Amino acid sequence: MRIAEAIDRSVGPGIAHATDPRTVAVDLTGRNVIDALNRIEDLRVVPDNAAVVVIDEASGTIVMGANVRVSTVAIAQGNLTVKVTETPMVSQPGPFATGTTTTAPRTSIQVNASQDKRLGILQGNVTLGDLVSGLNALGIGPRDMITILQAIKAAGALQADLKVR
Is residue 46 in some structural domain? Predict the structure, then answer.
């Protein structure tokens, strides 16, 4: 709904409406489509609660909110490899059933410490908390975890503000 409201403020009232939690329909009938799309492309929409990760490098403390997400990314540091991937999964109704075909993301995390060749995989929606739990299970210390989080942010895969103190 926030996206639809932002489009209406920028392009004109009644142009956009949210059809479901992931989709916004835009009606550009009678408008300059190129100009409207240019305006829509540059819009900024503020989420409900800003996702933030706070790192205190001096003490090795990491504090994060529950809504911090990680996009597809792969990281190698020393003997540790972290890979987060997202694969779309198609959900289709059976024959003669009502409903529509939809696509849902299937996300997994793989953590590999080459010392023991251990591999931990988390299926489903991946939060930063899931990733940190997996790293903790492998015995990754706070200093290495801080470096990994900074690299994830630099790669654009950390869907949160990163505040380093």
Answer: no
